[in-house]
Fold this sequence. Notes:
By secondary structure, the chain is of the alpha/beta class. The protein has 3 domains: 2-87, Udp-n-acetylmuramoylalanyl-d-glutamate--2,6- Diaminopimelate Ligase, Chain: A, domain 1, CATH 3.40.1390; 91-311, Mur-like, catalytic domain (UDP-N-acetylmuramoyl-L-alanine:D-glutamate ligase), CATH 3.40.1190.10; 320-464, Alpha-Beta Complex (Protein-Tyrosine Phosphatase, Chain A), CATH 3.90.190.20. The protein is 30% helix and 25% strand. The chain is built from 14 helices and 25 strands. The protein has helices spanning 46-51, 75-87, 105-117, 146-158, 170-174, 196-199, 202-210, 282-297, 302-308, 338-346, 367-379, 395-403, 416-426, 455-464, and strands spanning 2-3, 15-16, 18-20, 30-33, 56-59, 69-71, 95-100, 122-126, 129-132, 135-137, 163-167, 183-188, 216-225, 239-243, 250-257, 262-268, 271-277, 320-322, 329-333, 353-358, 382-385, 411-412, 431-436, 443-446, 449-452. The strands form 5 sheets. It has an 11-stranded mixed beta sheet, sandwiched between helices. A 6-stranded mixed beta sheet has the order 18-19-23-20-21-22, sandwiched between helices. α2 runs parallel beside α4 (146-158), α10 (338-346) packs parallel to α11 and α13 (416-426) packs across α14 (455-464). The model has no long low-confidence stretch (mean pLDDT 93).
Amino acid sequence: MKKIKEIINCDYDIYISGITNDSRQVKKDYLFVATKGFNVDHFNYINDAIKNGCSVVIADRDIDISVPLIKVKDINNLYYKLCERFYNINLNDFSFIGITGTDGKTTTATIVKQLLNNINKTAYIGTNGVEIGDKSLDINNTTPCISELYNVLEKSREEKCSDIVMEVSSEALLHDRIKNIKYDIVAFTNITEDHLNVHKTLKNYVNCKKKLLNNLKDCGVAIVNGDDKYCKKIEANTTVKFGFDSNNDCVINNVELLENMTKFTIKYLGNSYDIKSPFLGLYNVYNLTMAFLICIHFGLSAEYLVDTIPNLKVVKGRREKLDFGQNFEIILDYAHTLNGIINIIESIDKNRKIIVVTGCAGGREKSKRKKIGKYILEHVNQAIFTMDDPRYEDVNDIIDDMVGNSNIQYLRIIDRKEAIYKSFELADCDTTVLILGKGRDNYMAIEDKKVSYCDYDVISKYFDK
């Protein structure tokens, strides 16, 4: 706890136990900072923050409230400084790696975290939560809000962890959540159509992703997928582009996609490295190569990486093969974009039958639903459409958007648990069941609530019967 006058010039001798600009996160004796966001003016939620227990409010306008009000001018920029002072954080004490893109952020960031953590305690921040060394925490967003991020940095410092690997979402860039962080390395996995409900156009989305370059240190390095239509145009003071195209700085070739391993060669700076990776699928060749280059430019030796990569753990919820002794294959994956779904379906052995269980999220761009549904219906043996974070939308309406006027047979099972269990009943020894869209998420977004739910738990209970 700190006294409010320790972090801002005022006459109040009041202890505060936390700081946030989200009224829903307020707890007893919190400081509530009423910032003005891209879509939300938090000033409108001051009374909610007081109901939830805040003891002091900072705002840029007058309001008659029951707790002390500190009025300031530039509240958004002040918010960063307040967090720095409350958590006593000096950002120069940390080294940051920021990874953005439509697909592959979680896998790439987790690989980098594993490789670095073997040498020096490293923190991961992203879709799968927070990992500081071997400790785990939950967060609300892929890239947490400002106060939550500083809280993570405080915990990282307590654990003597100074290397931070972050997934950086387009919404975090849009809302300036990482505005004052300078990255040693930024990386761009790919850019395909996504989040257009927020960004409105693909051009806006691409430009928002590119904003991450503004946070790169002058001596920093940008690692870029040089095969990607949009990423290949990205340039920084120092840029390393990789891919199969021979014009890239780092060239991938000799790929062998085996049943339980992927072999390929990385050619970089006149040297050739033979990689044996536990990550399956061509798209994971890109993810692994990016992680390799990030670690090289972070100071790890190529020899160490070549020796260590074969023993990496597969990322939970990312092309995760589940073995409960069943005679068919189950793969759990987070894929929810058209590109991600295409990648994972194309990675399955062509001799196997494929059953897909998936849906589309409510309150998100509707334009991609028909494209996803059409691709699935035309490329798998059995499609089962179900709920996936419907929010305020009717699941039937979402599925209608996905299937359109198609006359290809499919199953519509609204309850996701029932849909998954039905897929198992239909599977035989030549079948791969793909359960897509949620990965290891621990909730289902229904209306404005996050209801406890996890695909993995549902699957494991089926085989516990």
